[in-house]
Amino acid sequence: MTVVTLGVHIVDVLARPVESIPQGQDTHLLEQIRITAAGAAAGTAVDLAAIGLPVASMGVVGDDELGDFLVMIMRRRGVDISGIVRRPGEQTAASILPIRPDGGRPSFHVPGANLGLATADLDKDRVLGASVLHLGGMDVTWGLHDPAFFALLDEARAGGTVVTMDLLSNMPDLVAGARSFLPHVDHVLPNEEQALMLTGAGDVEEAAGALLATGPSGAVITLGGEGSLVATAGGRIRIPALDVPVVDTTGCGDAYCAGYIAGLLGGRDAVGAARLGTALAARVAGGLGSDAGLAGLDPATL
């Protein structure tokens, strides 16, 4: 049962702990620096591969050194990267993340080639053959705001593919643009801020109901340290976050999505899938980078 992640691919450069930016030419010594494959598609793909699920990823990266690194590290982690398009003359998306001692993660970001991903870049047969198709970052992949892509999603769902969706940004204009995808997905997994922007609701309970009303059968709103809210036609339930020492919150949402997808593939309902997502997010929060703590983990034990 193959998962296809489709959307945003980013190279993250992370450093911790960063208490301040040095003045002038000063240097601060740190404990750790890492470079990782990240983004709502690439990060989720790497996490799925880490827990043993077959996964292919689709997106666009530049034909540059950052792109070389990204496809190399994804291949090394076990992701099928044959669906990733290299775009000559464009920069691969990248972020620099100075991680605060409390795990907070301000960022410096270049969107890069992600903005140009289009329906024509996709392998239609692979999309239609996926057990789960995960859309990562549809708010910033403007080329997929396309009736032809919506028709492809509907065709995939009619053939038995489960479509899940996560967002990337917290920019109101971008998040609002992702509303057009909601009638074409089965499970949507925004964070609290994104859910409120998507729906215009005053609180997460109202937002969950509004999301379900647009078409998905499951709406999961992640709430950071407060856990998550899972909403289906059967009701609402809050899943508490696990109490773990937080090193870095980068990639926790991607790990949550990977766990949720693994749960669905393992036969769990939305609540059970959300519990597995919570467990994976907690693992990632305990290390640096979007894939921290997941290598060799058996989701059946969680």
TrEMBL record:
At the top of the EC hierarchy, this enzyme's class is transferase
Please give the InterPro entries that the UniProt record associates with this protein. PfkB_dom, Ribo/fructo_kinase, Ribokinase-like
What's its EC? 2.7.1.-
Q: Which Gene Ontology molecular function entries are recorded, alphabetically? A: kinase activity
Instruction: Tell me which UniProt keywords the record has, alphabetically.
Output: Kinase, Transferase
Origin: domain of life: Bacteria
Pfam families, from UniProt?
PfkB (PF00294)
Provide the Carbohydrate kinase PfkB domain boundaries: 14-290
Gene3D superfamilies attached to this UniProt entry: 3.40.1190.20
Name of this protein: Carbohydrate kinase family protein
* Originating species: Microtetraspora malaysiensis
